[in-house]
Amino acid sequence: MKKISLLLSALVMLSCANEKKQIETLKTDAFVPISETDYENAIIYEANIRQYSPEGTFEAFTKDIPQLKDLGVKIIWLMPIHPISLTNRKAKGNLNVEDIENEQEREKYLGSPYSISDYTAVNPDFGTKDDLDKLIKTAHDNGMYVILDWVANHTGWDHKWIQTNSDFYYKNDKGEVVDPINYATGESWGWTDVAHLNYENKELWEAMKNDMLYWVKEHNLDGFRCDVAGEIPTPFWEFVVPKLKEIKPIFMLAESEKKDLFFHAFDMGYNWEGHHIKNEIAAQKQTVAQWDAYMQKIDTTFQADDILMNFITNHDENSWNGTVQERMGDAGEAMLALIYTLPGMPLIYSGQEYDLNHRLKFFEKDEIPKTKSKKWPILEKLGKLKSNNIALHGGKNAADYTRITTTSDENVLAFKREKGDNTIIYIANMSSKETSFTINQEGIFKNYMHDESRTLDKKTTYSFAPWEYVILVK
């Protein structure tokens, strides 16, 4: 009897030990919501589901999510996933789908993903809500977060509110709902496939809040990228964001540089002005002097914990203003390295990792290349540095940015990022001509991109080829 009791006790102890081990494993593997610590070394990836794969589906993108870990991606931004309105659907030029006489040709125009007919549904071309949930879970399982593109400024003309709540929209003198107006000129932006929402109506605030809450509550979304956020009254965002954060911590990205958005609503905004200066420098229409003036400007414009998203391409730039090669030419790689070493968060747009070099069609099916060539290993290496070196922290507790002077400051951009005992230096000839210079910096460093030692001193004259750059690590 005593032996049986001992055996039972041993089995109970073993069972408890196994149960404890299982609980510890669950705790270790459990999904942890996004936090401000994640912002410091995060890389954000913009996923164009329609153009990412031949299938253009959630499922096809989900298969590749584990690969994004190799690039250091921490946040996945899904371009709008909602059904697209049929009424006034854009085709090409100034034509709508209704203007296309040939039925076969008409079918190829899928419309703008920013013309939404239902905020709480998914585009059936992409798959189902279950497919979306699998995408989100796969991202979470791989230590990534998913944010949803949210278009709060306007809806498609098929949205039910047009019929049930027309007072949610701006109207003309005839009482007709209108497309968005540029109030500086009084003219239409040309976004005729959408109807302009009017936030003077506080009932709209509640309706929009409820639709946003749906995705956080029911699908465990981790935040939103908000389209033309600066065109919507800041008080609306200050109203809705705390409601969302009552559910769980979320990340909010504004397509705007409007500084008051960051006070109580958004974590990060677009570095549009900096991006345009990079384009101008690449075209040799501006010099590094304009970049230095811009860095001084943002240092006094924004709060210390405001974050800007740095990019050399995105869906708008690629489709409407040109590829990286078209806009930046031979300067492209130096500019890519720059966005990883600046304060803030770097963006990768779908296809950039696969050397995308054509303008993706905006209103119809197109595809990115899917062959790893020159850009993948560069992004992989830059991603590793951004992810692991605290001198590149760019969130609310960003590493210091200090300009390093040279004898050719109009052409040579040199700065250092420092945090703790870590230092990273970026030096680039931002011109189309070979440039010689001395630099006000000394030390022995690792030339990170080429895995070799590099010594700097104040007396040596250095010559950089057009658009040559180095990232030095100490």
Q: Given this structure, which CATH class is correct?
A: Alpha Beta
The Rg value, from CA coordinates, equals 25 Å
Based on the structure given, which CATH architecture is correct? Alpha-Beta Barrel
Low-confidence stretches: 1-28
> How many H/I helical runs?
17
Could you give the count of β-strands? 20
Q: How many domains comprise the coordinates?
A: 1
CATH topology: TIM Barrel
Largest sheet data: 8 strands, parallel, barrel
Query: What structural class results from the helix and strand content?
Result: alpha/beta
* Average pLDDT metric: 93
- What is the CA–CA distance across the termini? 70 Å
Widest β-sheet, arrangement of strands:
1-2-3-8-9-10-11-12
Q: State the CATH superfamily name.
A: Glycosidases
The coarse overall form would be globular
Strand content: 15-25%
Helix-residue proportion: 25-40%
Give the SSE layout.
Elements (H helix, E strand, L loop, with lengths): L1 H28 L6 H5 L2 E5 L1 H4 L5 H5 L2 H4 L4 E6 L24 H5 L21 H13 L3 E6 L3 E3 L4 H4 L16 E2 L4 E2 L5 E3 L5 H18 L3 E4 L7 H12 L5 E4 L6 H4 L3 E3 L1 H11 L5 H14 L5 E4 L4 H7 L2 H5 L3 H10 L3 E5 L25 H14 L11 E4 L8 E8 L2 E8 L5 E3 L5 E5 L4 E5 L5 E3 L4 E5 L1
